Fold this sequence. Notes:
Elements: E1 2-4, H1 23-39, E2 55-59, E3 62-63, H2 64-75, E4 79-81, H3 83-86, E5 90-91, E6 94-98, H4 100-107, E7 113-117, E8 123-127, H5 130-133, E9 139-140, E10 143-144, E11 177-182, H6 183-188, H7 195-200, E12 205-208, H8 210-213, E13 217-220, E14 223-225, E15 229-230, E16 233-234, E17 247-254, H9 258-261, E18 268-274, E19 282-291, E20 294-304, E21 311-321, E22 331-343, E23 348-361, E24 366-369, E25 393-408, E26 413-435, E27 441-468, E28 471-489, E29 493-495, E30 499-502, E31 523-541, E32 546-561, E33 570-589, E34 592-603, E35 611-612, E36 615-616, E37 627-640, E38 643-660, E39 668-687, E40 692-706, E41 725-734, E42 741-750, E43 753-754, E44 762-763, E45 766-779, E46 782-791, E47 810-818
Parallel strand pairs: 15-18, 24-26
Antiparallel strand pairs: 1-4, 2-6, 3-5, 7-8, 9-10, 11-17, 12-13, 13-14, 15-16, 17-18, 19-20, 19-47, 20-21, 21-22, 22-23, 23-25, 25-26, 26-27, 27-28, 27-29, 27-30, 28-31, 31-32, 32-33, 33-34, 34-37, 35-36, 37-38, 38-39, 39-40, 40-41, 41-42, 42-45, 43-44, 45-46, 46-47
Helix pairs in contact: 2-4
Amino acid sequence: MHHVQSRAIPRAFSMICRRRIMAVAVSHALLAIAAVGIAGQPLSAQAQPSAEQRRQYTIPAGSLESALVRFAQESGVMISYGAADVAGRQSPGVSGSYTAGEALRSLFRGTGLQPVAQPNGGYTLAPALPEEATLPAVQVSGAVVETDGTAEAGYRTNKVSGVGPWQGRSLQDTPYSVNVIPTELIENLQATTADQLYRVNPTTQLTWPQSQNDTPYVYMRGFLSTTPARNGLPGAMYGHGTSTEDVERIEILTGLSGFLYGTGNVGGLINYVSKRPTAERYNSITTGYTGGSNGYIHGDFGGPIDAEGRFGYRINAVVQDGETTINDFNIKKNFLSGAFDWKVTDKLLVQVDGSYRDYDSQRQAYWALVTGAVRPSADRLDPDKLWSQKWTFFDVESKRLGTNIKWEANDNVTLRASWLKRRDTRAYSFSTNTIQPDGSYNQSNVIAAPQDMQGEAWNAFADFSFNTGAISHKLTAGHLATRVTRYDHIDGSSTAPLRTGLSLDAPSYIDEPAWGSHGQLPNWNSSISRQNNWIIGDDITFNEQWSMLIGLNRSTIDNSSRSNPSDSWSSSYKESKTTPTISLLYKPVPYVTTYATYMESLEQGGVAADLYNGAPVTNAGQVMGPLVSKQVEVGAKASVGGMQLAGALFEIDKGLQYYDATVPTQPTYVQDGRQVHRGIELTATGKVSRDWTLVGGLTLLDAKVKEQKQNPALEGKRPTGTAKQFFKLYGEYQVPGVPGLTLSGGFNRVGAAWADTMNTDRLPSYTVFDVGARYVMAAAGYPLTLRLNVNNLTDKRYWVNNSFLGDARVIVLSANLKF
């Protein structure tokens, strides 16, 4: 006989939030919570909640045994049953405000069983009456059970917030390669930055850890992605200030997106979707430890403001501080976000959300090689040591404000608009370590004055639904625009004297030099970048099997810049191009969708930097001409059993830009030839069995340089940074004999890549293993989740790109209480 019961915690859950959070205190709190929860006694009949007391339940559909465990944890009510009685039975779940008896009866709908109340306040099970067994299993008192994207559903989701102008299609019927990371996976991976999510996702290659520059950069289909979107609005800013704490899900589109999101983004686009207000009151507090002595507290609160539920709120707040696993490398973060919904009418919705984020950290060194030097093995360089100076820093203050409006004017016309504004103020000091032919390294150090970046994006679309005979249409027309303004200081940076002949055996530290005056003069507007896109498209449905998406985007890039405040503006760059897209979809059966898509995208030409590998660039500041990239993609998506499967074959043809270092001391930035990327993506998400969840996939990439004229030696070379393959697999196992316990683990295999254009500096392949566990129990009648993750279990040393080492092993702990 099994007894599912809550574990009482005799003392209240309490925490003190101070300006500095030391991980020692956090770890002690975690141990104390775990110890008290394990030592708790079953609730007595007198202590159990009244069966008539109403409370909020959120129990997803799934196995009946899992639902009963979750119910006992949330309600504090004891249920006794035989293992054979519930084996193989599925519960529809329950979501809403109910008494314990009402919630239980809902959980048993369609199972052939019913709960029987006992004198001690608990329940036993009995066979249901025939009519009870046939009651509807999905809807309870008007509340629809929500399982999309939950751990119980194996993180499967068929929702997508919309892909560019297209709205209303399910994920399966969207003719692009899109992966969705839902909120429960973010929570269970303890992803306080997006890094761990990109390590798990099978279509992204993490190349720049967020701790390095507060900007997570990834390769997608072999192209670097640096400008994410927020709630469908792209291009407002680089990824500084990226947060996960207020994110409901992350939607990862791989491949060209010219018609969808405007210019650039050749490899794909990442869209961060904000958490929205909840229909019922929601309170969640997490205290966590991220390694070293670094810890955090995160509060997440939501619910309705008025009795009718027309106004709702969602507040997220985070305080983080302490030294990380890297010696003398601290991360301090203060974050606050708010989201508010107003249902003006049943047809008109207004949403507003914003955030403030203050992020301060040290700065790891960039690694570079001079001509003739050999890249040292990653085993030689300890990633737990600070290879820059202790006084280096990277400080970013980020502010964001946005709004969305949607009005369903009638059954055939919908109007929608969005606006987003961001402002980042960042200041930094960094070290560059340049490895010499004799195996030593030289170090240069720079400090920069605060730099102000202001980004704004907006769109407005109208959707018109109509029929032409038996063919249905959803015609969408509108405008998407972005504007990024940069402010610099005239005396913006200072350089310290060069240090030479340093040993790779251990870092070498010096006192901070007297930098002199920098950043003392007012800042000034140095550049303005604008993009405008006029879009029209038609979503055509021929019948239940055949459909088509077709569209045009007239894109314009308009950049202005000046060298100093006294100069007049120069329109140094203005280019326009009309780019098309067309997709054909065929559904041979309802659970399988196949598609073929063609898309083009306009891209701004690159700008020559001042230095390349430490040498002055001969054409520094030169802006290259515009580029037009093309992509062909064919794919299939299927829902099979408990799994969501997808595959895509693609080819991207893009103009090539690179630094020609034939003469190492005189590199030149050039635009010459093409780079053609061909590959395949295979992904799988969902439940393999009742207890097993798998998330993973494989990307194979053949990327080559072609049509070289200026430098024939590059013909057939592989573009820098692009791995030939990466294979990701993450799994979870719900231990049958221990209700509430889930074990997890996985690996991230990234193939070899080249660090230079001539393919002489090789970045070896690497495999990183992760393991974890979580345990759900009841604390004073509320669900308490304890999580443990060990990332890079074997402490693998590796180069994540040509400038940075990958993260060392880190142990992450957290305790989450929902009430």
